[in-house]
Amino acid sequence: MQATLKSAATFTGVGLHSGQPARLVVHPASADYGIWFRRTDILAGDGMVPARWDRVELSPLCTKLVNDAGVSVCTVEHLMAALAGCGIHNALIEIDGPEVPILDGSSADFVETFLSRGVAEQDVPLRVLKVMKPVTVEIESAWARLTPSDQLSIAFEIDFQERGIGKQSRTLALANGAFVRELSTSRTFCRQADVDAMRANGLALGGIPGVNAVVFDGPRVQSGTGLRHSDEPVRHKMLDAMGDLALAGAPILGAYMGVRAGHAVTNRLLRALFETPGAVAWVESDTNISARLPGAGVRRDEVPALV
Is 78 a catalytic residue? Predict the structure, then answer.
């Protein structure tokens, strides 16, 4: 069955890149509505922006959605990952600015609030996207692949010269609340050199090392009270991939593999999936499929305690 929130959830904070404050409200929505953003500060013209793969404007730093009128919402990936991880398929998201609040740099606050509000099943069948044959995209040294599977899984590899990060890899089946337990609290991360370069170009204005981002400078780590996982960077990359895959418009049954991949690579992978004849098929979710979806049976007490 499809699902939505039982009651609205409100979040306030600043955007990671813009530094602009924003108020965001996630409202319940009817079955088959999907996920939509509405820019409440747009008083003339079309302020509705669909959370969909073909509305992504490619960017290496975040995921940005743009409608036909040029109205945009960026840094949607952590929110989209939380919605997918909690099994929420229909929602109207009102926001009074161009960037989703970064909060603590992870999906934890979104997940905790959604599960405290409660998720309501809707008496309408859920359709899912089943990967039927492998699809791969590559951009320079980064690549990503989707292959057939009976559930969503994410595997990721990263390799940074920064000593505090290094080479990390992880694979996770996303069934039955695994996203909430294993990935939702992992924060965005970057190198100090990246922070300096972004701020010189008017970006990362809302980033605060140790508060909403983990910053690595050689062997030094600025992360507040410490890393939440020893491999927090690769877990966060998996969180990002989860959010970007959620823009497919329905849960995916397939195995994702990313190597040094970012937002642009994952979006191009979705584009290739839908553009490749026979690569994906719509399937109505039955009891067996529903039990393997990311939000199946997830509970509020499964959200890890934060450090």
Answer: no
List all residues 6 or more positions away from 208 whose beta carbon is below 8 Å from its beta carbon. none
With vertex at residue 202, the alpha carbon angle to CA 199 and CA 207, rounded to the nearest 5 degrees, is 50
Q: In whole angstroms, give the CA distance from residue 186 to residue 163.
A: 19
Phi, psi of 115 (to 5 degrees): -70, -30
Q: Is the distance from CB of 133 to CB of 253 less than 8 angstroms? A: no
- Contact call for residues 60 and 263 (beta carbons, < 8 A): yes
Q: For residues 114 and 300, give the distance between their C-alpha atoms in angstroms, rounded to a whole number.
A: 9
Within-domain flag for 74: yes
Is 307 within the bounds of a domain?
A: no
Q: Report the pLDDT value the prediction gives residue 304, as an integer from 0 to 100.
A: 81
| pLDDT tens string 270-299 | 999 999 999 999 999 999 999 999 998 888
Centre a 10 Å sphere on the Cβ of residue 285 and count the other Cβ atoms it contains.
19
Q: How far is it between the farthest Cα atoms of the chain?
A: 53
What confidence tens digit (pLDDT) does each residue in 142-152 have?
A: 999 999 999 99
Catalytic residue among 17, 89, 236, 263: 263
pLDDT band at 307 (very low <50, low <70, confident <90, very high): low
- The CATH number of residue 37's host domain is 3.30.1700.10
d(CA 280, CA 270): 10
* Phi, psi values for residue 75, rounded to 5°: 55, 50
Query: In 10 A of CB 28, how many CB atoms?
Result: 20
Please state which of the ranges 121-125, 224-228, 247-251, 274-278 shows the lowest mean pLDDT. 224-228
**Is the distance from CB of 281 to CB of 165 less than 8 angstroms?**
no
Residue 33 has a CB neighbour count (10 Å cut-off) of 15
Residue 150 domain flag = yes
